[in-house]
Amino acid sequence: MLKRQSVLVSWVCAVFLLASCGANAGRPSTQPEPEDGYVLKDDVTNINEHLNYDDSELHKIYFAGGCFWGVEAYFARLYGVQDTVSGYANGTGEHPTYEEVIKGDEKFAETVEVTYDPDRISLETLIDHLFQVIDPTTKDKQGNDVGVHYRSGIYYTNEADAEVVKEAVKDEQQFYKKAIATEAAPLDNFYEAEEFHQDYLVKNPNGYCHINLHVLDDIKIQPIIRDEEVVKRLSEPKEDEETN
Q1: What is the Cα–Cα distance from 71 to 60, expressed in whole angstroms?
Q2: Are 26 and 136 in contact (CB under 8 A)?
Q3: Active-site amino acid positions
């Protein structure tokens, strides 16, 4: 079954892909643009595929922000994110199917499990990125997606992360007159979505996406020491290197 309810709707989404992905729902980053860093070459879309995470102490956080296709694709490309998995979180049933989730009866949220290395990217930075690509004031809605399963949320698994998440949501309120609707809650459950949904926009580059993935094209990476050689090799030459 297609994610959208008809082939016609999917076709329209593909036609208007640039328009639907052309504007950010959230606000600009609160973190200053790095003065120095590496910008990946055009043919390198995911730096994490070239890095070694074997010795990393990985952490997990769970983000809901509308259709999980775009959320997964966005966070997969952030330096320091080792893996992303689309799934269904914080509902009342067990092992739901997509068809059951979209009915809304069990209150699952389309959610992405983000596995990351805190030495490469912080939880605060990840949350900041979430708020850059969603509208946290809309209830059960993101972009063209409407329904309880499209609500926004940040779900954590330990108290240390709880403090960071709740503080970040509290701080986010200053940017909006309307109340923040994004949930900040413990992860009650998470079920991996069907294979069809995993890495959907990698398999279907023209698929529907409510997030502007192109904002990542020129993002600057400041790698840790052991990644610098790899990142430099896969990045555009810096201006000072071009003149030498």
Answers
A1: 15
A2: yes
A3: 67
